[in-house]
Write a structure and sequence with these properties.
homodimer; mainly beta; 5-stranded mixed β-sheet
């Protein structure tokens, strides 16, 4: 109890001392409210859980969803780094709506059935994407409406914040002691539904539902620094480059926002709906994919001018607006579900992967990963590019493929052994020290990237949504749909793993 | 700080001692989780704030939204009741997403504009309906995802609970030490939107979005007793009669659920969409209104068999599924917006009030309250019946009318002086000791029920959504869209008010 009291004393201090910035005020604003220390949404800051200076290891910043423009969330540490980060740590942090990891069925299975209940838990109560790791701190966004900063070594909470209740479906960006969150839910309100029925191109997702937009917090204590509101949802994670954040929203807009001030630099309306497709920046170009009008756009990061526009022929549903383009060495790789067709009474789809020249938009190759049954919610796979190969999965076939990024030739196909009723293969693989790591279903896998042969598997429990393993030194960090943040040693998945001493 | 510590010690006890029932487990289930005392969604129970036995005054149960089948939420107390309840108390309790009452503009005004931002705050962050008062305790549901039990005398928190994060848009029902909450949001997911575009009658609101349904809690400490999941949203408040709860849902179903066990007695699929229209029970009939297929149904409470079906010709949008039918002495009164027409480039609507014979469904009269500009979100007015008169407002005309319940003759019309950009007049008036009380916009009004003449006004701040003043003895209790629960003496609104000593 004395332990608890000291924690709560800190909570009281955090809540009483203007946890929100002088110029920023959001519901619930704790200033001047005697009941603040008990407010569930007041920012909670526990400074003693912050990492010591020697433990502030790993990347210095986090600029893109899935760890970078190529979506490879792997970060080596030096041989002088502390032993814990080299050997790996193991912990599970329960977030606000944590559901026991031992439960195989999501909470809503009793009413929606397992297949539909899986995305409900991912989209409304747990972590949709993976986590960011910067300077010994794990940052996570959860659809429980909170963002978390966790000590990467101990798994203890440093701060949590819920600036304005909304789902936080992204991978927090971090730079220069600031954290950027993107807020928006999968929802439409009735007015937009009737609008959609009249003109699908005119409706925007997330409008008039909740307080969407980008929230900038202090990485140190979770204090809100600025808020950039958007009418449509900001489900995708922004991209950070050239001092600006680039974000697409559910009402068809693409914004550039100054990262220090939250002031808009430009906005370009391209139409369609942003779902979970996060923009990617490469050499003063930002690549953004949208649904309904299924297009990928290259915009000039300085002006917002559209440089080129591409599509994937036959792209269906939200396929194009869900998947984030991966970019490396002048090539953009994108995929989308396409060609809906009923086969034996069941809806089926293809997954089409396409590579574009980043400068011109010229199509380099197109590849069909194969046909399979339609799955609920996110239907594509996030591509990752590493050393001339694209690694990409698809929940339609519940398989991953390795594809030559120049030729489009498939090197191998690996079928996820336990795909489950909603399919597996959404998250990007992570390439680290000669091995490919994949988190899908309740498991993490290690594959030989040359053959696609499985090297190892570790059962975590819960479910991984559009989650890439974030690897720092000897640890894999993950966000879980059951509303947990998980850390496990790389060697738990790949027994042959060791870092040079 | 010592005060805080003792509160928190209680919090720790509540969280550590199996706050959820042995047979019920929901995210977040606090059992076996070391971090529970800090979990924002763990049930918080502060027993010392419960009322003393002499303060357990007011109604013994709460069976319908707006206080009863006739929607008159007024409850006299005896001359022997404690002085505080006779004279009235004054307090404001900030809920989890409280926005300062002094702020005239809702938080989202900066992005949605005031007109659209008002319903966003009501529907996603604050109290949509008024509060229930039973035995000296105020019970409230908020769209901040929490339910609250507050000491009616002191305004102090007794417990708060958020069984599964979802908006709670109702007026809690209370009976026999149990509290019933209805969970569901205004949202559609994309799959339902595309379904709606193909067939508006087939789509259901709230499906695959979150954990909808009815939650039964202990009135004593907020502990979850049972959960009845529904696929579509359960935005309306159920009706309680004959040992069962009757609820309509966003996927067109009407359920009867045993109030003790949560076991389904029957379900009748009528189609359409339930919005905010709460069922009303009268003599083994339950009256339920739905949208999209704009109908009112009378069902047998014992079997779920449809006894009769009525409509309002030309009913538009969600009008019919938003308004709860009022029932008294064999007459059902219902209204809905109708006849959408563009006038001078602006969308306009009528508000049509209609009375039916409760036994046969025969239409007794139909009255047009007048045409006005379309308003966002809830577009009707909740009717209240008292001593042969219907009192009903409309945000389309921002006016209230008194109508003879037998003839449909209008006695008077009163225009809300400060209607605001989203219109005023949604909540039912409350008739109490010869005066009519109305909460709309940021104000509470007192009217002479014979003439419609204004007697007094009190400015509370924030906004009242579909809120009826709940009057117990000398106090008016209210739920506020700014996420507060407000208590004020009746005499603050009506200076001539006094209770006999």
């Amino acid at each position: 109890m004395s332990h608890l009291r000291s924690i709560v004393a800190l909570l009281a201090v955090a809540a009483g001392s203007a946890a929100f910035g002088a110029d920023v005020s959001v519901p619930h604003d704790p200033r001047g409210n005697l009941l603040d220390p008990l407010s569930p949404f007041a920012t909670l800051y526990l400074p003693r859980n912050a990492p010591s200076p020697v433990d502030r290891v790993g990347p210095k910043r986090w600029t893109h969803a899935y760890g970078g423009p190529n979506h490879n969330a792997a970060f080596a540490v030096s041989a002088r780094a502390p032993a814990w980060i080299r050997h790996g740590v193991s912990w599970n942090f329960p977030e606000a709506r944590a559901w026991p990891l031992s439960k195989e069925r999501p909470f809503g299975a009793q009413i929606y059935g397992i297949k539909e209940a899986l995305p409900v838990q991912t989209q409304s109560y747990g972590n949709a994407l993976g986590v960011s790791v910067v300077g010994g701190v794990v940052y996570a966004e959860s659809d429980d409406s909170f963002a978390y900063a966790i000590n990467a070594r101990t798994g203890h909470l440093i701060w949590r914040a819920s600036p304005v209740g909304n789902t936080l479906m992204g991978n927090p960006l971090v730079n220069d002691n600031r954290v950027y969150l993107s807020a928006g839910s999968v929802a439409f309100n009735f007015a937009n539904v009737t609008l959609y029925a009249r003109d699908p191109h005119a409706a925007g997702r997330g409008k008039d539902i909740s307080y969407n937009g980008i929230y900038c917090l202090s990485a140190h204590d979770g204090k809100l620094l600025w808020y950039f509101p958007t009418a449509g949802d900001a489900m995708p994670t922004p991209a950070l480059a050239y001092g600006a954040l680039y974000i697409s929203t559910g009402d068809g807009n693409i914004y550039a926002i100054d990262e220090r001030t939250g002031v808009k630099r430009w906005v370009t309306h391209v139409g369609g709906i942003a779902n979970m497709s996060s923009p990617t920046v490469w050499r003063h170009r930002v690549f953004v994919a949208m649904s309904v009008l299924p297009n990928i756009y290259a915009l000039d990061t300085r002006t917002g001018r559209i440089l080129w526009r591409g599509s994937i022929p036959g792209a269906a549903n939200t396929g194009m607006g869900d998947v984030s383009p991966a970019v490396a060495r002048g090539i953009v790789v994108m995929d989308a579900v396409a060609h809906p067709r009923t086969v034996d009474g069941h809806p089926t789809l293809d997954t089409i992967v396409r590579a574009y020249d980043a400068r011109s938009g010229r199509v380099l190759w197109t590849h069909d990963m194969g046909r399979g049954p339609k799955v609920p919610a996110f239907k594509g796979g996030v591509p990752m590019i590493h050393r001339g190969m694209v690694y990409v999965g698809s929940p339609i076939t519940s398989a991953y493929q390795a594809i030559n990024v120049r030729s489009g030739q498939v090197a191998w196909t690996w079928h996820v052994p336990h795909a489950g009723p909603a399919g597996a293969g959404r998250g990007a693989p992570t390439y680290y020290r000669g091995v490919l790591y994949i988190s899908t279903g309740p498991d993490v896998y290690a594959l030989d990237p040359r053959s696609g042969r499985s090297i190892g598997r570790h059962h975590v429990g819960g479910r991984f949504g559009i989650v890439s393993p974030t690897i720092v030194g000897g640890t894999i960090y993950l966000g879980n749909s059951w509303d947990w943040i998980d850390a496990l040693p790389v060697k738990a998945v790949n027994p042959r793993f060791h870092l040079p001493l």
